[in-house]
């Protein structure tokens, strides 16, 4: 009936065409026209000048480079993880619950995800989960320094050594108490530290001494002298060095005292060294949002969000794979890896291509995550085309001509992937 009445079909299509024209066709046409004029509006025609600026500007070239990384890495990893999750969850009882957890990030906006991962990637391990994990693993295998930032007073018996530690300026003879005072430590950090003490008894021929914080609460006191209220520095490593070689090592006790046995220091005076390991700064983790890693960190947050999308679509395609083929391959002796590689993946190829192309279109337009996660100093290092479009048009550049040119470039980059997807859909429908 409608086929015989073209005007009836046109009436049904007219509302959709009006909305499509107002929301898609008109903005595209206006953007193309605007891209041919300068920053001051339609008063100055510049022709292709804005496009020349786009491909010669350093910021835009950085954005193009980052977009290329996004297109190659993000869709590939998200699709691969989605495939792995979809296949593995078929074999476990709680597969549905796992899929729900993986898909849940899709329920939040890009803005919310950006705020979450800005906190996850915080440099302070007390705030950022990523660095809390990294620091925890690091400190498990590499012992943290006892007193980072500690150092001797100027003119004291200790002087800086080439290895980053401190060594006594004069040799110490056995039987003579070695006083090793340090400063540069906040007394409030020495919770539970005992009063520093002079060694009560030093075995004959041994080298003894004390390491302590040379600071008296309330001020006053004599530098280099142990007085009431001065805290001991326990756990400090002390080495006896003779002729450039370490001959003995000791660790200070709870009251700051230490003993280097006579059997090790026999042979004359030695110099006492406090090695660098006592003073190195605490490991602060990885600078996730620094210039080197900021793009990769943001890609990680994108994968966290969109892996669930890929998994659900691939799982739907996997449900349509004939089980007889898989069972026949297993009966014929194929391993699970062979079944996956030679049967499952080829049969899922159409779904995988659709998911991959859809994600490519999506990452070409990524803006929210980069704008929210990347801090100001490194935002340029994480720049992408959509963000550069905003910055050029409204974020300080105030040049909507260049911004419109960027919009046209972005449209041209998206069109091939979009046409490819449309062709795939039409082929699938014609079967």
Automatic annotation (TrEMBL):
SUPFAM superfamilies: MetI-like (SSF161098). It is found in: Cell membrane. Residues 64-421 form the ABC transmembrane type-1 domain. Keywords: Cell membrane, Membrane, Transmembrane, Transmembrane helix, Transport. The chain crosses the membrane at residues 68-88, 100-121, 303-322, 343-364, 401-422. PROSITE patterns: ABC_TM1. It holds the Pfam family BPD_transp_1. Signal peptide: none annotated. CDD domains: TM_PBP2. Belongs to the binding-protein-dependent transport system permease family. This is Sugar ABC transporter permease.
